[in-house]
Amino acid sequence: MKKTFLTALFALAVLAGVQSQHVEFEEYDLDNGLHVILHEDKTSPVVITSVMYHVGAKNETPGRSGFAHFFEHLLFEGTENIDRGKWFEIVSSNGGTNNANTTDDRTYYYEIFPSNSVEVGLWMESERMLHPVINQIGVDTQNEVVKEEKRLRVDNQPYGNVLKAVKENLFKNHPYRWTTIGEMEDLDAATLEEFQAFNKKFYIPNNAVLVVAGDIDKKQVKKMIKDYFGPIPSGPAVVQPNIKEDPITQQINAKFYDPNIQLPMVVHAYRTPSMKERDAYVLDMISTILSDGKSSRLYKKLVDQDKIAMEVAALNFSQEDYGSYITLALPLNNTPLETITREMDEEIVKLQTELISEREYEKLQNIYKNNFVTSNATVEGIANSLANYYTFYGDTSLINKELEIYKNITREEIREVAKKYLNPNQRLRLEYLPKTDQ
Protein backbone atom coordinates (compact mmCIF):
# COMPACT_ATOMS: atom_id res chain seq x y z
CA MET A 1 0.00 0.00 0.00
CA LYS A 2 1.37 3.39 -0.99
CA LYS A 3 2.02 5.77 1.90
CA THR A 4 2.90 9.42 1.85
CA PHE A 5 5.98 10.74 3.63
CA LEU A 6 3.78 12.49 6.22
CA THR A 7 1.83 9.31 6.89
CA ALA A 8 5.07 7.42 7.47
CA LEU A 9 6.31 10.12 9.83
CA PHE A 10 3.04 9.99 11.77
CA ALA A 11 3.26 6.22 12.09
CA LEU A 12 6.82 6.46 13.40
CA ALA A 13 5.80 9.12 15.91
CA VAL A 14 2.96 6.95 17.20
CA LEU A 15 5.26 3.93 17.47
CA ALA A 16 7.82 5.96 19.40
CA GLY A 17 5.08 7.14 21.75
CA VAL A 18 3.90 3.60 22.34
CA GLN A 19 7.41 2.32 23.03
CA SER A 20 8.10 5.13 25.48
CA GLN A 21 4.93 4.37 27.39
CA HIS A 22 6.14 1.15 29.03
CA VAL A 23 5.10 1.50 32.66
CA GLU A 24 7.37 0.15 35.38
CA PHE A 25 5.70 -0.84 38.63
CA GLU A 26 6.18 -2.95 41.73
CA GLU A 27 3.40 -4.79 43.54
CA TYR A 28 3.06 -6.79 46.72
CA ASP A 29 0.54 -7.72 49.43
CA LEU A 30 0.38 -6.75 53.07
CA ASP A 31 -0.46 -9.45 55.62
CA ASN A 32 -4.04 -8.10 55.87
CA GLY A 33 -4.63 -8.72 52.16
CA LEU A 34 -4.22 -5.15 50.90
CA HIS A 35 -2.65 -5.21 47.46
CA VAL A 36 -0.08 -2.46 46.91
CA ILE A 37 1.17 -1.13 43.56
CA LEU A 38 4.00 1.42 43.35
CA HIS A 39 4.93 3.37 40.23
CA GLU A 40 7.90 5.74 40.36
CA ASP A 41 7.96 8.69 37.95
CA LYS A 42 10.34 11.55 38.66
CA THR A 43 9.31 13.73 35.71
CA SER A 44 7.06 15.94 37.81
CA PRO A 45 7.04 16.62 41.60
CA VAL A 46 3.56 15.22 42.17
CA VAL A 47 2.22 12.01 43.67
CA ILE A 48 -1.16 10.31 43.59
CA THR A 49 -2.41 8.11 46.41
CA SER A 50 -5.43 6.09 45.41
CA VAL A 51 -7.51 3.21 46.69
CA MET A 52 -9.87 1.13 44.58
CA TYR A 53 -12.41 -0.98 46.46
CA HIS A 54 -13.96 -3.90 44.61
CA VAL A 55 -17.49 -2.79 45.44
CA GLY A 56 -20.08 -1.14 43.25
CA ALA A 57 -23.78 -1.10 42.57
CA LYS A 58 -23.77 -4.81 41.72
CA ASN A 59 -22.90 -5.59 45.36
CA GLU A 60 -26.16 -4.06 46.58
CA THR A 61 -29.37 -5.93 47.28
CA PRO A 62 -32.82 -5.27 45.79
CA GLY A 63 -34.53 -2.45 47.63
CA ARG A 64 -31.20 -0.98 48.74
CA SER A 65 -29.81 0.41 45.51
CA GLY A 66 -27.40 3.33 45.50
CA PHE A 67 -25.35 2.23 48.54
CA ALA A 68 -21.95 2.12 46.78
CA HIS A 69 -22.41 5.56 45.23
CA PHE A 70 -23.69 6.86 48.54
CA PHE A 71 -20.46 5.68 50.21
CA GLU A 72 -18.46 7.55 47.59
CA HIS A 73 -19.86 10.65 49.33
CA LEU A 74 -20.23 9.35 52.87
CA LEU A 75 -16.59 8.40 53.33
CA PHE A 76 -15.56 12.04 52.95
CA GLU A 77 -17.57 12.95 56.04
CA GLY A 78 -14.71 12.40 58.46
CA THR A 79 -12.91 9.86 60.60
CA GLU A 80 -11.94 9.42 64.21
CA ASN A 81 -8.90 11.62 63.55
CA ILE A 82 -10.27 13.89 60.81
CA ASP A 83 -13.05 16.12 62.06
CA ARG A 84 -16.29 16.26 60.15
CA GLY A 85 -16.02 18.74 57.28
CA LYS A 86 -12.23 18.96 57.48
CA TRP A 87 -11.29 16.44 54.78
CA PHE A 88 -11.16 18.88 51.86
CA GLU A 89 -9.56 21.56 54.03
CA ILE A 90 -6.64 19.23 54.84
CA VAL A 91 -6.19 18.35 51.19
CA SER A 92 -6.23 21.93 49.94
CA SER A 93 -4.00 23.22 52.74
CA ASN A 94 -1.36 20.73 51.60
CA GLY A 95 -1.60 21.90 48.00
CA GLY A 96 -3.62 18.92 46.81
CA THR A 97 -6.82 17.93 45.09
CA ASN A 98 -8.98 14.86 45.51
CA ASN A 99 -12.00 13.10 44.10
CA ALA A 100 -13.82 9.78 43.89
CA ASN A 101 -16.08 7.92 41.49
CA THR A 102 -18.25 4.83 41.50
CA THR A 103 -19.39 2.34 38.87
CA ASP A 104 -21.45 -0.83 39.02
CA ASP A 105 -18.23 -2.76 39.76
CA ARG A 106 -15.88 -0.62 41.89
CA THR A 107 -15.33 2.57 43.89
CA TYR A 108 -12.19 4.68 43.47
CA TYR A 109 -10.80 7.37 45.78
CA TYR A 110 -7.68 9.43 45.10
CA GLU A 111 -5.62 12.44 46.16
CA ILE A 112 -3.02 14.32 44.13
CA PHE A 113 -0.39 16.11 46.19
CA PRO A 114 3.01 17.71 45.79
CA SER A 115 5.41 14.83 46.25
CA ASN A 116 6.55 16.05 49.67
CA SER A 117 2.99 15.43 50.96
CA VAL A 118 2.76 11.76 50.02
CA GLU A 119 2.49 10.83 53.69
CA VAL A 120 -0.59 13.02 54.08
CA GLY A 121 -2.35 11.11 51.31
CA LEU A 122 -1.44 7.74 52.78
CA TRP A 123 -2.56 8.77 56.24
CA MET A 124 -5.91 10.04 54.92
CA GLU A 125 -6.66 6.90 52.92
CA SER A 126 -5.71 4.70 55.89
CA GLU A 127 -8.05 6.78 58.04
CA ARG A 128 -10.86 6.31 55.52
CA MET A 129 -10.30 2.55 55.64
CA LEU A 130 -9.77 2.10 59.38
CA HIS A 131 -11.59 4.89 61.21
CA PRO A 132 -14.57 6.19 59.20
CA VAL A 133 -17.26 7.85 61.28
CA ILE A 134 -20.63 6.67 60.00
CA ASN A 135 -23.37 8.33 62.01
CA GLN A 136 -26.84 9.66 61.42
CA ILE A 137 -25.67 13.24 60.87
CA GLY A 138 -23.39 12.17 58.03
CA VAL A 139 -26.02 9.88 56.49
CA ASP A 140 -28.68 12.61 56.55
CA THR A 141 -26.29 15.20 55.11
CA GLN A 142 -25.09 13.04 52.26
CA ASN A 143 -28.59 11.80 51.54
CA GLU A 144 -29.53 15.37 50.59
CA VAL A 145 -26.33 15.76 48.56
CA VAL A 146 -27.06 12.60 46.55
CA LYS A 147 -30.68 13.59 46.00
CA GLU A 148 -29.58 16.94 44.58
CA GLU A 149 -27.02 15.22 42.36
CA LYS A 150 -29.67 12.85 41.02
CA ARG A 151 -32.07 15.71 40.33
CA LEU A 152 -29.37 17.72 38.56
CA ARG A 153 -27.61 15.01 36.56
CA VAL A 154 -30.38 12.50 35.94
CA ASP A 155 -33.98 13.37 36.65
CA ASN A 156 -33.95 16.93 35.28
CA GLN A 157 -31.43 16.29 32.52
CA PRO A 158 -32.76 15.67 28.99
CA TYR A 159 -32.27 11.98 28.18
CA GLY A 160 -30.84 11.58 31.68
CA ASN A 161 -32.63 8.28 32.26
CA VAL A 162 -31.58 6.52 29.06
CA LEU A 163 -29.20 4.19 30.90
CA LYS A 164 -31.84 3.43 33.54
CA ALA A 165 -34.33 2.52 30.82
CA VAL A 166 -31.79 0.27 29.10
CA LYS A 167 -30.61 -1.49 32.26
CA GLU A 168 -34.04 -2.29 33.66
CA ASN A 169 -35.05 -3.93 30.37
CA LEU A 170 -31.80 -5.60 29.38
CA PHE A 171 -31.18 -7.29 32.74
CA LYS A 172 -33.81 -9.28 34.61
CA ASN A 173 -31.78 -11.05 37.32
CA HIS A 174 -28.37 -9.41 37.61
CA PRO A 175 -27.88 -6.29 39.80
CA TYR A 176 -26.85 -4.42 36.65
CA ARG A 177 -30.59 -3.94 36.26
CA TRP A 178 -30.48 -0.86 38.49
CA THR A 179 -28.43 2.30 38.11
CA THR A 180 -25.28 3.18 40.04
CA ILE A 181 -26.90 6.24 41.60
CA GLY A 182 -29.85 4.10 42.69
CA GLU A 183 -33.31 5.09 43.81
CA MET A 184 -33.78 7.68 46.52
CA GLU A 185 -36.56 5.78 48.26
CA ASP A 186 -34.08 2.93 48.83
CA LEU A 187 -31.65 5.26 50.59
CA ASP A 188 -34.47 6.87 52.57
CA ALA A 189 -35.62 3.47 53.80
CA ALA A 190 -32.17 2.28 54.88
CA THR A 191 -31.19 2.31 58.54
CA LEU A 192 -27.93 3.56 60.00
CA GLU A 193 -27.08 -0.02 60.93
CA GLU A 194 -27.41 -1.09 57.28
CA PHE A 195 -24.93 1.58 56.18
CA GLN A 196 -22.50 0.55 58.92
CA ALA A 197 -22.80 -3.11 57.91
CA PHE A 198 -22.15 -2.25 54.26
CA ASN A 199 -18.97 -0.42 55.23
CA LYS A 200 -17.76 -3.24 57.45
CA LYS A 201 -18.32 -5.81 54.71
CA PHE A 202 -16.74 -4.11 51.70
CA TYR A 203 -14.35 -1.30 52.69
CA ILE A 204 -11.64 -3.57 54.01
CA PRO A 205 -8.00 -4.04 53.00
CA ASN A 206 -8.49 -7.49 51.46
CA ASN A 207 -11.10 -6.00 49.10
CA ALA A 208 -8.90 -3.11 47.96
CA VAL A 209 -5.82 -2.10 46.02
CA LEU A 210 -3.63 0.85 47.01
CA VAL A 211 -1.73 2.60 44.22
CA VAL A 212 0.98 5.18 44.93
CA ALA A 213 2.35 6.73 41.75
CA GLY A 214 4.59 9.64 40.90
CA ASP A 215 7.67 11.25 42.40
CA ILE A 216 8.25 8.84 45.28
CA ASP A 217 11.07 7.20 47.19
CA LYS A 218 9.84 3.61 47.18
CA LYS A 219 11.75 2.57 50.30
CA GLN A 220 10.27 5.42 52.33
CA VAL A 221 6.79 4.91 50.90
CA LYS A 222 6.85 1.20 51.70
CA LYS A 223 7.58 1.99 55.33
CA MET A 224 4.72 4.54 55.42
CA ILE A 225 2.34 2.01 53.90
CA LYS A 226 3.31 -0.62 56.46
CA ASP A 227 2.91 1.88 59.31
CA TYR A 228 -0.47 3.27 58.22
CA PHE A 229 -2.15 0.31 56.53
CA GLY A 230 -0.47 -2.69 58.14
CA PRO A 231 -2.45 -2.52 61.42
CA ILE A 232 -5.84 -2.42 59.66
CA PRO A 233 -7.56 -5.78 60.22
CA SER A 234 -8.77 -7.76 57.26
CA GLY A 235 -12.37 -8.85 56.97
CA PRO A 236 -14.14 -11.93 55.67
CA ALA A 237 -13.42 -12.59 52.00
CA VAL A 238 -15.81 -10.72 49.72
CA VAL A 239 -17.64 -13.02 47.33
CA GLN A 240 -18.64 -11.21 44.15
CA PRO A 241 -22.10 -11.89 42.69
CA ASN A 242 -22.33 -14.76 40.22
CA ILE A 243 -25.76 -14.18 38.71
CA LYS A 244 -26.48 -15.36 35.19
CA GLU A 245 -28.93 -13.99 32.67
CA ASP A 246 -30.82 -16.14 30.19
CA PRO A 247 -29.84 -15.42 26.58
CA ILE A 248 -32.04 -12.98 24.66
CA THR A 249 -33.61 -14.91 21.79
CA GLN A 250 -36.17 -12.42 20.51
CA GLN A 251 -36.23 -8.64 20.36
CA ILE A 252 -37.39 -6.94 23.56
CA ASN A 253 -39.57 -3.92 22.75
CA ALA A 254 -39.92 -1.21 25.36
CA LYS A 255 -40.82 2.45 25.79
CA PHE A 256 -39.70 5.04 28.30
CA TYR A 257 -41.22 8.52 28.74
CA ASP A 258 -39.14 11.55 29.70
CA PRO A 259 -40.80 14.90 30.54
CA ASN A 260 -37.53 16.76 29.81
CA ILE A 261 -37.31 16.06 26.07
CA GLN A 262 -39.06 17.18 22.91
CA LEU A 263 -37.47 14.81 20.41
CA PRO A 264 -37.75 11.03 20.65
CA MET A 265 -34.74 8.72 20.59
CA VAL A 266 -34.39 5.15 19.45
CA VAL A 267 -31.98 2.92 21.37
CA HIS A 268 -30.76 -0.58 20.54
CA ALA A 269 -28.98 -2.46 23.34
CA TYR A 270 -27.34 -5.86 23.06
CA ARG A 271 -26.15 -7.86 26.06
CA THR A 272 -22.52 -8.79 25.51
CA PRO A 273 -19.80 -10.68 27.41
CA SER A 274 -17.59 -9.52 30.25
CA MET A 275 -14.96 -6.88 29.53
CA LYS A 276 -12.39 -9.57 30.33
CA GLU A 277 -13.30 -11.51 27.18
CA ARG A 278 -11.45 -10.93 23.92
CA ASP A 279 -14.77 -10.26 22.17
CA ALA A 280 -15.22 -7.16 24.34
CA TYR A 281 -12.07 -5.67 22.82
CA VAL A 282 -13.42 -6.38 19.36
CA LEU A 283 -16.70 -4.67 20.25
CA ASP A 284 -14.70 -1.59 21.27
CA MET A 285 -13.32 -1.46 17.76
CA ILE A 286 -16.75 -1.96 16.24
CA SER A 287 -17.99 1.08 18.19
CA THR A 288 -15.15 3.13 16.75
CA ILE A 289 -15.96 2.02 13.22
CA LEU A 290 -19.63 2.87 13.62
CA SER A 291 -19.59 6.20 15.43
CA ASP A 292 -16.18 7.64 16.27
CA GLY A 293 -16.23 11.03 14.57
CA LYS A 294 -17.81 12.46 11.46
CA SER A 295 -16.08 9.98 9.19
CA SER A 296 -17.61 7.00 11.02
CA ARG A 297 -20.13 4.81 9.25
CA LEU A 298 -23.31 5.66 11.15
CA TYR A 299 -22.59 9.39 11.11
CA LYS A 300 -21.82 9.46 7.38
CA LYS A 301 -24.89 7.39 6.53
CA LEU A 302 -27.61 8.77 8.82
CA VAL A 303 -26.43 12.34 9.44
CA ASP A 304 -24.44 13.41 6.37
CA GLN A 305 -25.83 11.35 3.52
CA ASP A 306 -29.48 10.55 4.29
CA LYS A 307 -30.04 13.44 6.73
CA ILE A 308 -32.48 11.40 8.79
CA ALA A 309 -30.71 11.82 12.15
CA MET A 310 -29.25 14.80 13.97
CA GLU A 311 -27.18 12.67 16.37
CA VAL A 312 -26.05 9.05 16.31
CA ALA A 313 -23.79 7.02 18.59
CA ALA A 314 -22.52 3.52 19.26
CA LEU A 315 -21.03 2.59 22.63
CA ASN A 316 -19.53 -0.60 24.01
CA PHE A 317 -20.38 -0.25 27.72
CA SER A 318 -18.01 -2.89 29.11
CA GLN A 319 -18.43 -4.16 32.66
CA GLU A 320 -17.04 -6.93 34.82
CA ASP A 321 -19.84 -9.48 34.44
CA TYR A 322 -21.66 -8.44 31.26
CA GLY A 323 -21.38 -5.67 28.73
CA SER A 324 -24.07 -3.63 27.01
CA TYR A 325 -23.50 -2.66 23.40
CA ILE A 326 -25.66 0.39 22.73
CA THR A 327 -26.53 2.25 19.54
CA LEU A 328 -28.84 5.26 19.56
CA ALA A 329 -30.03 8.09 17.35
CA LEU A 330 -32.10 11.26 17.44
CA PRO A 331 -34.27 11.60 14.32
CA LEU A 332 -34.25 14.64 12.04
CA ASN A 333 -37.23 16.06 10.12
CA ASN A 334 -39.77 13.79 11.85
CA THR A 335 -38.14 10.67 10.49
CA PRO A 336 -39.96 7.64 11.93
CA LEU A 337 -37.98 5.71 14.52
CA GLU A 338 -38.59 2.55 12.50
CA THR A 339 -36.69 4.11 9.60
CA ILE A 340 -33.78 4.93 11.88
CA THR A 341 -33.72 1.33 13.12
CA ARG A 342 -33.74 -0.03 9.58
CA GLU A 343 -30.87 2.20 8.43
CA MET A 344 -28.73 1.45 11.49
CA ASP A 345 -29.32 -2.26 11.02
CA GLU A 346 -28.17 -2.00 7.40
CA GLU A 347 -24.81 -0.63 8.51
CA ILE A 348 -24.40 -3.42 11.04
CA VAL A 349 -25.27 -6.04 8.40
CA LYS A 350 -22.45 -4.63 6.25
CA LEU A 351 -20.04 -5.24 9.13
CA GLN A 352 -21.41 -8.78 9.49
CA THR A 353 -21.01 -9.67 5.84
CA GLU A 354 -18.08 -7.62 4.50
CA LEU A 355 -14.55 -7.15 5.73
CA ILE A 356 -13.64 -3.57 6.57
CA SER A 357 -11.12 -2.11 4.14
CA GLU A 358 -7.38 -2.17 4.76
CA ARG A 359 -7.44 1.62 4.93
CA GLU A 360 -10.19 1.60 7.57
CA TYR A 361 -8.34 -1.08 9.52
CA GLU A 362 -5.12 0.94 9.49
CA LYS A 363 -6.97 4.02 10.72
CA LEU A 364 -8.53 1.92 13.48
CA GLN A 365 -5.14 0.70 14.66
CA ASN A 366 -3.78 4.26 14.78
CA ILE A 367 -6.75 5.37 16.89
CA TYR A 368 -6.09 2.66 19.48
CA LYS A 369 -2.37 3.41 19.58
CA ASN A 370 -3.19 7.05 20.26
CA ASN A 371 -5.76 6.08 22.89
CA PHE A 372 -3.13 3.98 24.65
CA VAL A 373 -0.62 6.82 24.71
CA THR A 374 -3.24 9.27 25.97
CA SER A 375 -4.53 7.00 28.76
CA ASN A 376 -1.03 6.65 30.20
CA ALA A 377 0.12 10.22 29.57
CA THR A 378 -0.39 11.35 33.18
CA VAL A 379 0.39 9.86 36.57
CA GLU A 380 -3.32 10.00 37.36
CA GLY A 381 -4.14 7.93 34.28
CA ILE A 382 -1.44 5.40 35.08
CA ALA A 383 -2.63 5.00 38.68
CA ASN A 384 -6.20 4.42 37.55
CA SER A 385 -5.11 1.89 34.93
CA LEU A 386 -2.94 -0.04 37.39
CA ALA A 387 -5.82 -0.28 39.87
CA ASN A 388 -8.28 -1.38 37.18
CA TYR A 389 -6.06 -4.05 35.67
CA TYR A 390 -5.38 -5.60 39.07
CA THR A 391 -8.97 -5.39 40.35
CA PHE A 392 -10.75 -6.80 37.31
CA TYR A 393 -8.19 -8.86 35.44
CA GLY A 394 -5.82 -9.93 38.22
CA ASP A 395 -3.02 -8.95 35.84
CA THR A 396 -1.48 -5.54 36.47
CA SER A 397 0.96 -6.06 33.60
CA LEU A 398 -1.91 -5.57 31.15
CA ILE A 399 -1.02 -1.89 31.34
CA ASN A 400 1.86 -2.80 29.03
CA LYS A 401 0.20 -5.64 27.12
CA GLU A 402 -3.35 -4.58 26.36
CA LEU A 403 -2.44 -2.67 23.21
CA GLU A 404 -1.15 -5.93 21.74
CA ILE A 405 -4.65 -7.38 22.07
CA TYR A 406 -6.07 -4.59 19.93
CA LYS A 407 -3.18 -4.82 17.46
CA ASN A 408 -3.83 -8.54 16.96
CA ILE A 409 -7.57 -8.22 16.30
CA THR A 410 -8.16 -9.07 12.66
CA ARG A 411 -10.67 -7.78 10.14
CA GLU A 412 -12.19 -11.25 10.12
CA GLU A 413 -12.71 -11.12 13.89
CA ILE A 414 -14.51 -7.80 13.58
CA ARG A 415 -16.90 -9.34 11.06
CA GLU A 416 -17.49 -12.48 13.15
CA VAL A 417 -18.05 -10.68 16.46
CA ALA A 418 -20.55 -8.32 14.83
CA LYS A 419 -22.32 -11.38 13.46
CA LYS A 420 -22.23 -13.12 16.86
CA TYR A 421 -23.76 -10.39 19.05
CA LEU A 422 -25.40 -7.59 17.05
CA ASN A 423 -28.57 -9.22 15.79
CA PRO A 424 -32.17 -7.96 16.13
CA ASN A 425 -33.32 -11.11 17.95
CA GLN A 426 -30.63 -10.57 20.62
CA ARG A 427 -31.44 -7.01 21.63
CA LEU A 428 -33.59 -4.50 23.37
CA ARG A 429 -35.23 -1.94 21.09
CA LEU A 430 -36.20 1.05 23.21
CA GLU A 431 -38.22 4.05 22.15
CA TYR A 432 -37.31 6.92 24.48
CA LEU A 433 -40.19 9.33 24.11
CA PRO A 434 -41.41 12.75 25.28
CA LYS A 435 -43.82 12.29 28.16
CA THR A 436 -46.56 14.22 26.33
CA ASP A 437 -46.78 11.34 23.85
CA GLN A 438 -47.81 8.89 26.59
From TrEMBL:
It comes from the Bacteria. Gene3D superfamilies: Metalloenzyme, LuxS/M16 peptidase-like. Coiled coil: none annotated. Residues 36-180 form the Peptidase M16 N-terminal domain. One of its GO terms (biological process) is proteolysis. InterPro entries: Metalloenz_LuxS/M16, Pept_M16_N, Peptidase_M16, Peptidase_M16_C. The keyword Zinc applies. SUPFAM superfamilies: LuxS/MPP-like metallohydrolase. Belongs to the peptidase M16 family. GO terms for molecular function: metal ion binding; metallopeptidase activity. It comes from Aequorivita viscosa. Residues 1-16 form the signal peptide. Residues 190-367 form the Peptidase M16 C-terminal domain. This is Predicted Zn-dependent peptidase. Keywords: Hydrolase, Metalloprotease, Protease, Signal, Zinc.
